[in-house]
Amino acid sequence: MEKTDNIQKKIIEDVIYNAEKILEAFNNELDGVLDYSVKSLEVIDDDLLSQFHENLHDVDETMKENAIIQFGSYIFEVARRNYGGKYYWYEQLDQPILVTGQPDFEISILAFEKVKQRIENGYEDNIPFFFKGYVQKLATAKKGDKELIC
Known about the structure:
Blueprint: H1 2-26, H2 40-54, H3 61-83, E1 86-90, E2 95-100, E3 106-109, H4 111-121, H5 127-140, E4 146-149
Parallel strand pairs: 3-4
Antiparallel strand pairs: 1-2, 2-3
Helix pairs in contact: 1-3, 2-3, 2-4, 3-4
């Protein structure tokens, strides 16, 4: 159990650190709207991720990976701060996953994967729609349900 707690602590520290980078980089120019609210995800999507998509040809792989980690971490923290959950490591994609509802049910999200899709594919993979699906699954989850939102 101690190993699981240490992994959990490390992922939380990393996610918070990376989410805070988004606030440091953009919150002043956005008049402080990045407050970990669900509504702030509209700004993340419309004002920031849309620019990454539009300028994808000018973004190198390192910048893209950093954006995926930082924006994904912000989305994870919006979910965790508003709906709870625990972080785990998702081996299949080598990235964190947030699982909400345990022990009754497990509604999980892969925020890094969704940010990658948003940057690469554009608005068809918008973050508010993705997050709304997560919230709706949480609202209707029944004991034993398991769902992965990505």
